[in-house]
Amino acid sequence: MKAPLDHVGFLGPAIDALVQDFTALGFRILGPAPLEAVDADGRARPLGQSSAHIMFEDSYIELTAVTQAGPDHHLAPWLAKPPGIRLLLLQTDQARDTAARLAASGVPVTAVAGATRRLTYGNRGPVAFSWFALEGSPLPGTLAAFVQHHDRAAVFAPEVRTHPNTVTGITALYHRPRPLPAWLAGPAGVELIEDRHAAPGKPFLTGLGLAATDLDRCQAVMAANGVAVEREDDTLRVAAEQAGGAWLRIGAEPGAAR
Length: 258
Prior knowledge:
Helices cover about 15% and strands about 40% of the residues. The protein is mostly beta strands. The strands form 2 sheets. It has an 8-stranded mixed barrel. A 6-stranded mixed sheet has the order 10-9-11-14-13-12. A hairpin with a 5-residue loop joins strand 2 (about 30-40) and strand 3 (about 45-55). The longest helix is centred in the N-terminal third of the chain and has 10 residues, at about 15-25.
């Protein structure tokens, strides 16, 4: 099974700290806004979780924190862990069908759940999505899941995809060395690259590869905000301590300004 990347999620103890970090990195931050679960009867209930979003053309970065954690919260196993990328979600157009196919192939999955959040842009209305997780922690320290957006056009509105740092999207996921499950065959358009320098105990995903249209501007925006940036030829690198717990490698898009 080969599915596109939908988003990665940074989990930290406080949403304001994550927003501050990624604002300094030069991203346009949407939110934060509370997330709600949708019960079987269609009623929404608070999840005790708040998220902000950094949107690209067909994927995004989620910044999230849990404010009211119970033992049954889907992020409970990682709330006491250091900040980092704790969520990896792939796209599906039919959550129930995808879950059924995975289960039939011997991959244990949770029941499909519904959730909603209110947009802070566009029509500012609620958007709904369905998702399910892979059971058994197949990716260490990370919630691995599939998500179906029921209001995809509203979520990925063109007017919120541009950023002061000129970053346009996720190009690579750096991960701890380990055999990859078949369902993570390589998200379309995104490389999976082993991070052979990953420290023990880190989440499965240790870093992100990103593309920018203007590396000089990207570096200048970050430097103006006090972010230390290493540059080597056509690559910028930001340490994990300044980027929510995962390092960033930013390269120039083909034909982009350098």
